[in-house]
Design a protein that fits this description.
Strand order of the largest sheet: 5-4-3-7-8-6
Helix content: 10-25%
CATH topology of one domain: OB fold (Dihydrolipoamide Acetyltransferase, E2P)
Shape: elongated
CATH class of one domain: Mainly Beta
Number of strands: 8
Distance between the termini: 116 Å
Order of helices and strands: HHEEEEEEEEH
Structural class: alpha+beta
CATH architecture of one domain: Beta Barrel
Largest sheet: 6 strands, mixed
Strand content: 25-35%
Amino acid sequence: MKRYSLFLALAVVLTISLFTLPAFSQEEKTPAEKAPVAPAPAPAVTETAPAKAPAVTETVPAKMPEMPPAPAPAKETAPMKDLSIYGEVKSVNPSASSMTVQYYDYDSDEEKSIDIVTDKDTKLENVANVGEIKQGDWIDATYTAKDSQNIAKSIIVEKEEMPAETEKAPTGDAAGSAEE
């Protein structure tokens, strides 16, 4: 039995080594095998001159057929993206329903100005119309870039809150009695 198991173990080891040996071989390739394969040269075309001249043949490299230009990709109209800014109104043109707003662009890390145009669909908050917006007001505007214009969807004008009146300090006897 011992002989049989020894023979079986030897057979298994030999079988495994036969299958794995080619995978681990360290043969080096010759320089010809390592060199990249060069593309085949274009076949030569023989042209014959017209019948009037003596028969002369010349070898001209064959022209590769020209590929037709690729068709232009179909223009996909991407849905217009709403953009938002918060900035100070630098000028207002009520007759054109437009304004220039200076804002800070965090992507480029600089101050920028933008012209925003309102239309009949623009929602205004804290003002009745564009004419009520004044230079120096701060606005939060949501707009869409369309036809090289920035069309406002909504404009919220920031109104300064009036500070609450502070209570007057009591005078006279009430103040004097508190100190005693």
